[in-house]
Amino acid sequence: MTFSLGIDIGGTKMIFWDRLHPDGIRFPTGPDFNAQKLRTRINDYLKTCSEKPESIGIAFPGLVRNASEVVICGDVPGLNGLKADDLYLPQIPVRFINDVNAATLFAKTQYRSNSLAMVMVGTGIGMGITVRDNLLMGVKGWAGELGSIVFPTTDGRPKTLDELAGGKALLEQIGLPADSLHNRLAQEEAETMALVHDAGVALGMGLSMVLHLFNPDVLVLGGGTLSFRGYTSAAIATLRKFTLPPILNSCSIHTPKGAADWAAKGAHFFSLHPATEV
């Protein structure tokens, strides 16, 4: 059986996944994480492996070019400009992919669909689309930047969906870490619940846009921000309210458990099957 390694890099942690570690192994990242630290972490991990990987797929939260260069890595700016050759692994093919596209590839293995949309809501918001078995990439491979779509606001300053509904912006607005926010929501603190609800409504507007633009038969939602009480229910209620019924009724909506590892699993898949783009 082919042995390959999938890695998902995020703003606070990275996940290594292979068939020897089906639950994944997590390591911290952070704002000062950079190429040197990534090289060290990968090499240290490879020393523990009983087999040499035939390939490595790495998922990044940002824009990736030609499966070999990170153009922008928003949550981990120390990786901006990273090229696959910079990892100095000449004996192992290394392929880069956007993290949500990676998760979308794995989602495609879980649901039968002709057109699947996956929206991941974490620090920011990203989207992947598959048409039959292929990723919809766009001219540069950067399709799906849902969080960068701009919405008008009542204060006259347009904001991106990331600013209105992303996890980072929500925590900054409330001024609390995630654990404290969960505690306030459990105590049903009214102002906090209203802010989370409003963020969920904004996400729902973005999701309605996705359904109207792409008409997928499957919509999959994942990401840690969905765990905030009231957030997901507000998003889905808004989606249902503002989406044309025939389009809504032709789409099944899923919020699977365990999707946090899907980008690492999808990166693993992509490293073995790179010809998955349109």
Verbal overview:
The chain is α/β, with parallel strands linked by helices and 278 residues long. It has helices at residues 35-48, 99-110, 161-165, 167-174, 178-186, 190-214, 231-242, 245-249, 262-272, and strands at 5-9, 13-18, 21-28, 56-60, 62-65, 69-73, 94-98, 115-121, 125-131, 134-135, 150-151, 159-160, 218-222, 252-254. It is built from nine helices and 14 strands. The chain has a five-stranded mixed beta sheet.
**Count the helices. How many?**
9
Mean pLDDT, as a whole number? 92
Number of domains: 2
Strand content bin: 15-25%
Highest CATH level, the class of the largest domain = Alpha Beta
Structural class: alpha/beta
The CATH architecture of the largest domain would be 2-Layer Sandwich
The first-to-last residue Cα distance is 28 Å
Which residues sit in consecutive blocks of at least 5 with pLDDT less than 50? Answer: none
Largest sheet, spatial ordering of strands: 3-2-1-4-7
- The helix fraction, in percent, is 25-40%
The global form is globular
Rg, Cα atoms, Å: 19 Å
Topology pattern, helix = H, strand = E: EEEHEEEEHEEEEEHHHHEHHEH
User: What is the CATH superfamily label of the largest domain?
Assistant: ATPase, nucleotide binding domain
Q: Using DSSP, what is the number of strands?
A: 14
